[in-house]
Amino acid sequence: MRVLVAGATGFVGSHLLPALVERGHDVVALTRDASDYDPPAGVDVLEADLNDRESLEGVFEGVDAAYYLVHSMGRSEDFEREDRQAARNFVAATRGSGVERVVYLSGLGGHRATLSDHLESRREVEYVLGTGEFDLTVLRAAIVVGDGSTSFRIVRQLAARLPLMITPQWVRTECQPIAVDDMVAYLAGVLDVPETAGETYEVGGPDVLTYGEMVEHTAEILGHSPTMVSVPVLTPRLSAYWVDLVTDVPRDVAHPLIRGLKTRTVVDDDRIRSLVDVDLTPFDEAVERAVA
Predict the structure, then answer these.
(1) What is the pLDDT of residue 237?
(2) pLDDT (tens digit per residue) in 52-64
(3) Separation CA 186–CA 155 (nearest Å)
């Protein structure tokens, strides 16, 4: 099967490419700038920009399936508009091309009314991709743990740098993180299971922890033991500025992520477990791999 990966140079995409090659697929990486990209063995490269519809002409010729792992945080202050336009251009470019399956990695979250701008944008992209002529499979995940994950980078740096943390109430919000290897196994696995076409699934690791517990577990693995004091007056918006002082994550990426931490991100529907067999990695083991 010829498979195109949009977002191939990102954190999850870079892990997915070799897994698809290993499964015997003919893999194409889509990137905005091919001049400084060194693809994994067995991967072809196409240069195009999802925000430039003309550059996408002919990109999907001969492609059977595609992955959409694109988001615009860090590239634009108005990431919602860019994400919306990129998804529309993607859909337009696939029309009449023969693409039968698309797999999209979205964000796990509760009721739509409680979603942050970041998670709301992920839902909007789901809707736009759903207007395509292909069968869409959506996988919704919370924090993906691995070296290179922006969300985990925040957790790791908080755990490593602060002996005492004055924390907001959102540190008690529950989350179900997933190891990057397990995320890739689900992404690659659904392509081999026809029943997953046109469906939306929630994915997560075996552990449900609060954000505070994630920081504490990570600190312990790093050899630290921070003290956490929760105060009700520190809102997600205010704590986003506090995170600016402690981590090196760019604010235009960190702030939307932090504002989403008030949303509980736990799997309520685990149907995917009966369709794609993944030996889930415990959180502590995923952290140990990430920091090794």
Answers:
(1) 61
(2) 999 999 999 999 9
(3) 24
Question: Of the candidates 73, 202, 205, which has an alpha carbon nearest to the alpha carbon of residue 138?
Answer: 202
pTM for this predicted structure: 0.90
Is the separation of the CB atoms in 73 and 116 below 8 Å?
no
pLDDT digit string (tens) for 215-254? 889 999 998 876 666 666 556 566 666 666 677 776 666 6
Distance, in Å, from the CA atom of 80 to the CA atom of 69, rounded to the nearest integer, reads 15
Question: Is the CB of residue 50 less than 8 Å from the CB of residue 89?
Answer: yes
